[in-house]
Amino acid sequence: MADFHTLDGFNRSVKNVLITKEEIAEAIAQAGKKIDEWYDGRPILLVSILKGSFVFMADICRAVSVPCEIGFMCAKSYYSGTVSTGVVKITMDLDQDISNYHVVIVEDIIDTGRTLNDVVKMLKARNPLSLRVVTLLDKPERRIVEFKPDLALFTIPDLFVIGYGLDCAEYFRNLPYIAEFNQDT
Ligand code: IMP
Ligand code: MG
């Protein structure tokens, strides 16, 4: 694996750009309209699943026009590298009581489906007024646990991707686009 700590290693880790920042911006504008339609003026709580969705959250919250609060949860499923451990841990929980909210979970990517399956179960048990899931990326080929989001902005093949919040070993979250990670470096 490339040494991400050097600029050269960092740059070589981007194999090719899959989704440009312009394509992401366009899809988010559309998603904002869709969310506005769903709630028709009713207030919502956007719940970002950290860390991967922090960039998407910052953009999607500015693309909706309904009154909106934000909340953050930290769910860890990848501890390092590109392999899932299969264990989902909630390392930081919401500080709101969600029973009075229409909740929209904002996720970066659905891969095996384990993270959202666990998070949705946990949040449904708290009796929100309603619960929907919006994900930036969906990798349906990789599903181990059946899970369908209410909205996926992009469906991608079984590739490990980085950028726009998504990491490999905590690096690359700051890339403005979604790229295929170069596993051969
Ligand atoms: P799941 O529980 O397997 O669906 O995995 C969801 C989490 O795994 C995501 O929120 C990401 O943090 C991480 N993940 C899955 N696929 C990728 C990828 O291609 N690049 C970076 N992170 C990923
Ligand atoms: Mg994530």
Strand content: 25-35%
Task: Indicate the CATH topology.
Answer: Rossmann fold
Query: What is the strand arrangement across the widest sheet?
Result: 4-3-2-5-6-7
Order of helices and strands: HEHEHEEEHEEEE
- Percentage of helical residues? 10-25%
The CATH level-2 architecture is identified as 3-Layer(aba) Sandwich
Describe the biggest sheet?
Answer: 6 strands, mixed
Report the total helices.
4
CATH secondary-structure class: Alpha Beta
- Net shape: globular
Bound molecules: inosinic acid, magnesium ion
Radius of gyration: 16 Å
What class, by secondary structure content? alpha/beta
Low-confidence spans: pLDDT under 50, at least 5 residues?
A: none
Number of domains: 1
Mean pLDDT: 93
Structural features, described:
The chain has helices at 7-12, 21-39, 54-60, 114-124; strands at residues 14-19, 44-50, 68-76, 89-92, 102-110, 130-138, 151-155, 161-162, 178-181. The protein has 185 residues and is an alpha/beta fold. The protein has one domain: Rossmann fold. The chain has a six-stranded mixed sheet with strand order 4-3-2-5-6-7, with helices on both faces. It has a three-stranded antiparallel sheet with strand order 1-9-8. Strand 2, helix 3 and strand 3 (68-76) form a beta-alpha-beta unit. The mean pLDDT is 93. The structure holds inosinic acid and magnesium ion (MG).
